[in-house]
Every structure is written in C-alpha cells, then in structure tokens.
Amino acid sequence: MKTYLDCIPCFLNQALRAGRIITEDENKLRTILDEVGIILRDIPLERTPPEIGMLVYKKVGELTGEFDPYHNIKKDSTEKALSLYHLLKDEVVKSKDRLLTAIKIAIAGNVIDYGVNRVFNIEEDIDKVLKNDFAIFDYDKFKHYLDKTNEILYIGDNSGESVFDRILIEELDKPVKYVVRGIPIINDVTYEDALQAGIGKVAHILSSGTSAPGTVLRTCNPEFMKIYNNSNFIISKGQGNYEALSDERHPIFFLLMAKCSVIANEIGVVEGDIILKGV
Amino acid sequence: MKTYLDCIPCFLNQALRAGRIITEDENKLRTILDEVGIILRDIPLERTPPEIGMLVYKKVGELTGEFDPYHNIKKDSTEKALSLYHLLKDEVVKSKDRLLTAIKIAIAGNVIDYGVNRVFNIEEDIDKVLKNDFAIFDYDKFKHYLDKTNEILYIGDNSGESVFDRILIEELDKPVKYVVRGIPIINDVTYEDALQAGIGKVAHILSSGTSAPGTVLRTCNPEFMKIYNNSNFIISKGQGNYEALSDERHPIFFLLMAKCSVIANEIGVVEGDIILKGV
C-alpha cells in the first residue's frame, strides 16, 4: 500500500509523541518536528507507510539518542495484557466457535498501538471488538487454508497484542512460527517482548530482521525470506504489516482493525472496523 | 494563547483539507504540504494559533488561486442551520431558563467547524450539547455583566453557527453589534454569511477587518478596535476567538466547545466539553 498525503501530518504527530516520551524540552521537540519535516518533504509516496515510519523513528532516535522510547510502555502493556489472559481464554472456551472467538480476541489486541493517533482502553475496546461484526470476513477461506497447511507463519505486530496472539495460536493446533521485528520500533513486538508474552511456550519465535513498523520485505533477513517464500499459510497481524504486505501475491490472511481513515478508505471499510481478509 | 507543537501537524492537516476542496491533483496537494511545512518551520510559537492559521490559509490561496475554498460549504451549512431555527427556537421557548438554553444552543452551533480535525453531525451534536453540563460555568457573572451593560459586542465565529448566535441574541434583549471576519477564512462568518443567517434582523453587523480565523487584534481595523476598547460586555464565540483573545484583560465571556486536546488542556477541561468562561 502506498503512502498517502494524510500520512505526512500523521508522521509528524507520531514523531512528536515519541519525542515527548524522551524529552520535555520544547526546543528539542521542535527540532524533531523540523528535521522529520525535511525527511517527509523528500519521501516518494509510492513507498509504503512502514518504510517511511522506519525513517521517521530513526531520525527521532538520532536526534535524541533514544532508539527505544517505548521500552517501558511495551513492558507495561504486555503485563496488562497478561493479566487479561485467563479471562479471554475463558471467553474462547465457553464460545460456540472457539477459533472465531480467538481470531476476534487477536484482533482486539491490535488496539494496543502507540503508533496511531488514537487513545485506547484495552478492556473497553476488547469488549467492543468481541461484539462487533467483521466488515470483511474471509473466514471460510481461512479455515480451508488452515486445514491444508502443515505449518503457520504468524507475523506479529505490537507488544501486548502478542498475548492475544498467543490465545489464537493455541487454537490453531498446528506448528507456528511467530515473527517479530528485528530491532525495537515504536511498540512493535520484538523477540524479548514475545518471550514476555509467553509466545515461546506455543510457537517458535523468529525475527524478520526488519527495523520498520511493518514487514517491509526488502528490509528482512534471508532466513525469514526463505521461510516466508515457502509458506503456504501466513497470518499477518495489524495495520503496519497490512501496509507493507497488501500488494503481495502470497497466501496471507490479514487480521486487523482499521485504525485510521487512510487505511479504512484503502480497504473500503470505515474506521474502527475489524477485518479478516484473505488473499 | 500560544501555539503548541501539536498545532503544527494540525495545520498541515488543515492545509490538506482545504487543498482537497480546491484540487484533486496530488502533486499540487503535495506542494501545498511542502510550502506550508516551510512556513511552519519559521513560526514563533509565542504567536496565537489564528495568527499562524492566517498564514497557512493565505499560502493555500496563493498556491491554488482560491482564497475562499469553503464558500459553498458555508452557504450550505447556513442553510442547514436555518432549517433547524424554528425547532431550536421552540427549545428556548419551552425551557425553564430561556437565556441558558439559548447560550447552550449558541455553543452547540460551534460544532459547525471545518477548521478542526473533527467530523460532526449537526443534529446529533446539538442534542449532545443540550444534554451536557458545562465544564466551566460563569453564568451568574454573565448575567450580572449583561444586566449592567447597555450594549453587547458579540464576536461571531463560524458560518452556520451564526444562525444559532441569532437565537441567543434574541434572548439578550439589548442592542447587539455582531462582529464578523473582514475577508473569508476557512468557514468563518463574514458579512455576507451573517446576512444569510438573518443576523441583520437582530443586530448591527460589523467587520473586525481581520483575515485570521480568530480576532487577532493587531490585524483588526480601527473602527472595530474603538468599539472593542469601549465595550463593557463582550461575547466571544468559539475556539479561534478564544485562542486570539484569551490573554486579554477585558470583560469578555467566552462561549465555546473544546474541540481539540490542545485547547482542552490549555483551559483545563476535556475534549468535547462546553464552556462559559468569564474574565
């Protein structure tokens, strides 16, 4: 998916938000906005938003010396998500369609996202998502592909959210490789975060190697690329991965919530909609 | 009120939104973002947001040749507001406190604002405002000042909204001078818009002369300044006028809804709150 003009002010907002975690110095924050503004003037819009995001957060890191501003926030959000684990597991166990409930829970976890201009309340939002109908619902196709595959490549998105991914992985009943970012970027899930979420108990954790907030293939490592190319069932979580992979011709199922008007328009849904979209 | 760093991405969004009314050409729109970005790099944050807004929209005008992109939208929103006039007038007539209900209606009209990043639905939002309590409520002081004055200076904000101002003016029961912007800026009310709203029937319409989306005094004409300086009861409508006049030491009553987090934080309320704030 290409980058839209609306993404430009949004990236400035993101840079400001990340900067504010690191410093309260208004002059430094202004410099961040100015310098990120210069980057944004030069970007080709044909690139995907996570490719631009990678440059924006790298610049914030360079200007402040802090390349992982969301470190503590990530730890906290995973802890918070872990405290909800049993409650959500119960929802799955008592539901009529365990797989479907687990998919919804995994998407609900996608509300934990500090990259978008959106305030969230985990408990409230989960409740909303569980009650919400899908705007795109390729569930039969999903089950068909799941049935045929021997292994699943599951591309994670955010920390905290990965606890909810674990609930879905436990229902998939097949070997899962869980893909994390190569280095910290926003609150995206890394190896360390996935371990904290307990993903190591249910899947093999694998780094894509990327430093983008989405699986931008040209920035991924050869080990991941080999596995990716040989996969016949891929679950892609969240908006960043959708933005990076939506033009791929590969058996990918996108599980996400449309958290801004740009992606909602691109997919043809409305903001806040939940999506299970097969290829 | 000073301009905050958060206003910078917001101004870019505003420029993009105004640009999109004029053209669909992505290259032109990109140029608008780039050029407005350059202006924003140089602005002193000590200036008020409407002072910056004036420069931003002027630049959009220069780049596109269209200095009044909201012309038709303004006409339509005033027409829409006029269609609600009798309904809202009935609300006032049947209420226990006519003045208070009219004040609430005038604030409700403030949702009609294309300058902020906010989608609105007039009927729904009016209903919400009428049911909402004030976050700041200097009503007794307002009545006290109203009682003592012989004349009211009423500074309008947006087109459409001015129909709701008319309802309040009709309850004030004193001669009113209604202040409009000097030239079109966003969807702010001008002389022509105020006439369309029927303000001419209930007040003397007066231009402040400003081309800013708020009453930035140093951009106002001498005629207005003389009246302003001699006024002992001023009603200031909306966010832009608050931003421009909040540091003034003058008998001003601000009637507004806090429509973004920046102004909400500045005033010490939450987004969406309604305010009747005396000096």
SSE string of chain A: HHHHHHEHEHEHEHEHEHE
Please write the CATH class name of the largest domain in chain A: Alpha Beta
- If helices are DSSP runs of H or I spanning 4 or more residues, what is the number of helices of chain A? 12
**Mean of pLDDT of chain A:** 95
In the CATH hierarchy, the third-tier topology of the largest domain in chain A is known as: Rossmann fold
Main-sheet strand order of chain A equals: 1-7-6-5-2-3-4
Which two chains touch over the largest interface? Answer: A-B, 17 and 17 residues
From the N-terminal CA to the C-terminal CA of chain A, the straight-line distance is 14 Å
For CATH, the homologous superfamily of the largest domain in chain A is named as: Uncharacterised protein PF01937, DUF89, domain 3
List keywords for this structure.
homodimer, 279 residues, alpha/beta, Helicase, Ruva Protein, domain 3, Rossmann fold, 7-stranded mixed sheet, 12 helices, 52% helix, 11% strand
